[in-house]
Amino acid sequence: xxxxxxxxxxxxxxxxxxxxxxxxxxxxxxxxxxxxxxxxxxxxxxxxxxxxxxxxxxxxxxxxxxxxxxxxxxxxxxxxxxxxxxxxxxxxxxxxxxxxxxxxxxxxxxxxxxxxxxxxxxxxxxxxxxxxxxxxxxxxxxxxxxxxxxxxxxxxxxxxxxxxxxxxxxxxxxxxxxxxxxxxxxxxxxxxxxxxxxxxxxxxxxxxxxxxxxxxxxxxxxxxxxxxxxxxxxxx
Length: 236
Ligand code: OAD
What we know:
Blueprint: E1 7-11, H1 14-17, H2 30-33, H3 36-39, H4 42-47, H5 49-64, H6 70-81, E2 86-90, H7 96-100, E3 105-107, E4 110-117, E5 123-125, E6 144-148, H8 158-167, E7 170-174, H9 186-192, E8 196-201, E9 213-216, H10 219-233
Parallel strand pairs: 1-2, 1-7, 2-3, 7-8, 8-9
Antiparallel strand pairs: 4-5, 4-6
Helix pairs in contact: 6-10
């Protein structure tokens, strides 16, 4: 890798797997235990809000008890030390990147730790349950929902992401299956722009063939090794 200055890192559930947070598409993963249509679509929420709120209350509570692993720590180190541009685009709704100390993080699928009021559009930090339909702290309507992007909804801050990819010299994808768009398409956008691309994943992802290089293994090993390489040899 030569003359790398600006980096976009995309992370998925695989980076949090070793912290004990279930991925979606592994054997026994979340989407085997729950139907996407029931718990991750606006239609499912309209049909049965209690089921959806209970599902996210459980996930929020579980996430709060997890800790960042060495992969999150390594990304935070990159964030602290990398002097070029860096954007950490995560599909994850946990806050383990932030708890490891990373700052340049963008949650394209939202976060479990915000409540979104569908009456006044306010987003409020939230760690408690929502099942009792608590009032919005801003407008007091009982219209809160988890601030997570469901299937059929537009991911957040797409313009900022594409603009970072356009300026990037390197696109790195970590712990994501490449099954969900638009994130799954970023590698092809990067290729069209002649940007260097690297995948770090437990196994080859669905989009593996699009990457210049793909390394297989647990994120807790691959990511610290890669960050060492970047901080040791990258142009900063
Ligand atoms: P997936 O569950 O689809 O994929 C997780 C990937 O991580 C798989 O390719 C695993 O092989 C890999 N993996 C598992 N353990 C790992 C480890 N220890 N180290 C490295 N890699 C590991 O999760 P995502 O790709 O993040 O969206 O899923 C994308 C989106 O689909 C999620 O954001 C969510 C989901 O439906 C919404 O809810 C909108």
